[in-house]
Amino acid sequence: MYPFNTDRKIIHVDMDAFYASVEQMDNPELRGKPVAVGGSEIRGVVSAASYEARKFGVRSAISGVLAKKYCPHIIFVRPRFDRYKEISRQIHKIFHDYTDMVEPLSLDEAYLDVTQNKKGNPSATLIAQEIRKRIFYEVGLTASAGISVNKFIAKVASDINKPNGQKTVNPHEILEFLEELPIRKFYGVGKVTTEKMYQLGIFKGSDLKAKSQEFLEKHFGKSGAYYYNVVRGIHNSEVKAERIAKSVATEHTFDENISSEIFMIEKLEIIAQQLEKRLKRHNVAGKTVTLKIKYSDFTQQTRSKTLPYFISDKALLLETAKELLYQERMKDSVRLLGISLNNLNTEQKKAVAVQLKFDF
């Protein structure tokens, strides 16, 4: 008798270096070379890095300056999000040939519940192999996959044999798999938490499993119960076919830092207009407007205001953003501005999933 539910078959599909791989696919001259999507050797932040660049320590979220330092011959490419979305739609079309229980996490990864599937195939492992093969031949990109009984283990497993590989963790293998797993590989354990766990003598799953729930809650608050359960393979979150967005945002990083509030207003007007288009396209409105400001020293600040009514039009978005901008003086020149809208009218929707049991 296992402490976790064994009735489900969950696949986590994760595209390999997605943005960079799309650029290499579309431009043969970039193939086999270190590529960074986003950023530059002067400014900006890397959105994605090819595996050739990762060998030098280039990762997403580091500055372009640092990427150039790590890899002097790196090639910076401007992101093309419309193209990435187009490719993502092709990949999701393949997913839906197998199941409608698809929960996208981003453009390049998703959970699939194939407990019931359109092919009548009882093997989630074979389904994952077939999906990855189709993505390669029909789209031209490689993907990795993790397969197990819940989202947590599938997510962790998809990283084991990257790139272009997959890992199945069967029910009888789960406890040993988690006990031997380095704590930094646990999904939901970030860099700061990893360091804290190291200080507490927790280096892999077996160390975490040896701690009581009271101990973990004392040191990690509400997350303690999560850590206590997942190391035992317990994670009951369902694959939600319709993932309800909690916020919609648009932001711009500028080629040159801005110090004039007049220029900031001009930029905010463009951002508000783009945000309005996104909101109207998805028929969404919200009550809480948040202004995001990133300064030239990379420090970040957010200011929010909640309105008594739902809004989605540019004029009200801009008016509220301007009010937040003038709330206090800028402490430095600005390199990024963004507007997000949350407290959305979509949050009342619910998704229900019904699942049956098959042999794994």
Give the uncertain stretches in residue-range form: 348-360
Overall structural domain count:
4
- The spatial strand order of the largest sheet comes to 5-6-1-7-8
Helix content: 25-40%
Count of helical regions: 13
What is the CA–CA distance across the termini? Answer: 16 Å
Largest sheet: 5 strands, mixed
| DSSP strand content | 15-25%
Q: What is the approximate shape?
A: globular
Q: In angstroms, what is the radius of gyration? A: 22 Å
CATH homologous superfamily caption of the largest domain: Reverse transcriptase/Diguanylate cyclase domain
CATH topology of the largest domain: Alpha-Beta Plaits
- What string gives the helices and strands in order? EHEEHHEHEEHEHEHHHHHEHEEHE
Task: Report mean pLDDT, rounded to a whole number.
Answer: 91
Structural class category: alpha+beta
* CATH domain class name of the largest domain: Alpha Beta
How many strands? 12
Catalytic activity: DNA(n) + a 2'-deoxyribonucleoside 5'-triphosphate = DNA(n+1) + diphosphate
Cofactor: Mg(2+)
GO molecular function, one term: DNA-directed DNA polymerase activity
Protein name: DNA polymerase IV
